Amino acid sequence: MVEGVDGTGKVRRSGHVIVCGCTGLATRIIDQFLASGESVSLVVRQADTVVDAAVARWRVRVHTAGVGIGDALTAAGIDTAIAVVCVEDNELWNLESALIATRLNPEVRVITQLGNATVGGAMNDGSGPGVVLDVADLAAPSVVEACLGISTHHLDVAGIDFVAAAIPVTSAGSLRESFGDLAPLAVAAGSSSSPGARVVTCPGRDHPVRPGDVATMLGTADEFVARGFPIGIRPRTARASEPGPVLRAKAGIRGFVEDANPNFFRMLGVLFTLLVLSTTVLRLGYQKPGMSVLDAIYFSTETVATVGYGDFNFADQPPLLRIWSIVLMFAGLTTTAMIMAFLAELLISRRIAEAAGRRKARFMDGHIVVIGLGAFGIRVARELQARGRDVVVIERSRSNRFMAAADELGVPVVIGDATVPQTLTDARVESASAVAVLTSDDMVNVETGIAVRSILGDRWSDSVDHPGVPVVLRIFDRSMGDAVAERFGFHHVRSTAELAAPWFIGAALGLTVLGTFSVQSQSFMVGRVGIVDGGGLVGVAMQDLSATTRVIALRRAATGEVEYPPRRGTAFAAGDDAYVVGPYEELLAVLEHQRAAARVGRLS
């Protein structure tokens, strides 16, 4: 960072990043910026104890937009900033910060979090530097892959179709012995028995492995086939078939019994008792000329229904029988009216239940349950449905703003508290093929995950040796997610901040992010780095880079050809495009290596 004082006495910075907002995502972004050696200025709408604690932790300058965001951005040095990252909770504030930042400095890269597709599309028209990103869009693919049991990731790199695939290790030895020239990305040690297993990122080919480990390897599809590993995307289960007429009949009867008011069946019992009693009285007491059992049943039903066809009457019968007819008519009328009232109530409740999704959910088997109908949940549900899977959503609030979107997709929504077993039963979690717990409250997600585990019972097991029903938990903090996975046995814990932060950081620093994927709880990023003349990467050989970073291809500026795979002695040249994959912290360190030389040049 270069600092100086201009003619007005203001501090001027060169090469710093301005972050607008002090949210959880902003915290992760700032942490990584500082770890990469970048200078950060923080802009917030108002100061509070959280901001004070953050400033004390990071020792960064903070500017409060008490009067206007423009003044705060100017004070933060937007005229010399390399990027402005807008990640406030309020999307309107993000939009305002992005627009004003662009007006104040048209050359600065502006990276904005916007979930509104219409506004985001208008902002992301390519008319200026920067990009609009949606956290839900960035994080959803990882959850979808976990739900479908997909461990194969296709990466389009420089026009070459690369594949990153998780392959169980079947024999002890080195990675080179088991996988040849395939590039190792990660080894999950003992993942078949421990959800919190240690993940070794980008190990060398001589790294030892043993049965039970899972190695994530990178190469082309042809290379995998040559090593005897046919690659294909295989969902954990096929789409559930349409229920047959017998199943529908059983489900309909069960649904009728569950939805009906218990008093409805009591009134049916009273009516049945009344008809039996009346049949007996008429059979024994009706005179002139007498009645058969069928006649008695017919006349009792006729009297209860107050119909009367003139074929039978009580005019010439004994007084006691006529008194009985009066009692029978009043009792029958009352009972019938109550039964009709309960039927009307049942029809209304069944219509509500249909709107809430319970009726549709009763017919489902092998579906995927998404818990939490937020921006993230609806994105995951939409993607799962696009892949041909049946989806049921559980949502606590009837007034959720995404209810209309779910209805448009035809996704049934069960209204209720997902921590309550009955709600999970209504969504038929016990017969689901996967469950994604995606509410915005980490504590609720952990509690719900434990409740789901109890409902699944023996189907809970989810390991390489005994695959079961995957339960994906959204936990914001990565360290918290690792602790939850280890303590409670969850194999699929995902952090939206962890999955989305690389895109924001990479866009701010000039790294073109091509994709992200997860191995256990470790996030990997695929990106393109332009080798800048005068930057710190010119002349650097592959063997001099961090051991946890893989350069998988180079597009040479001189010839335009793609060099794959680059050898250990291959060096970068100015103008080349380097395609790299690894943990995003390491990729950002590579980018920082290049930027460091530029900063030294400015200082000199």
TrEMBL record:
Keywords attached to this entry: Membrane, Transmembrane, Transmembrane helix
Major localization listed first in the record, in broad terms: membrane
Boundaries of every RCK N-terminal domain copy: 365-494
A Pfam family assignment: TrkA_N
Keyword Membrane tagged: yes
Cross-referenced InterPro entries: K_chnl_dom, NAD(P)-bd_dom_sf, RCK_C, RCK_N, Trk_Ktr_HKT_K-transport
Subcellular location: Cell membrane
Membrane topology, as annotated: Multi-pass membrane protein
Keyword Transmembrane in annotation: yes
Domain RCK C-terminal, chain residue ranges per copy: 514-596
Chain segments annotated as transmembrane: 264-286, 323-343, 363-381
Protein name per UniProt: Trk K+ transport system, NAD-binding component
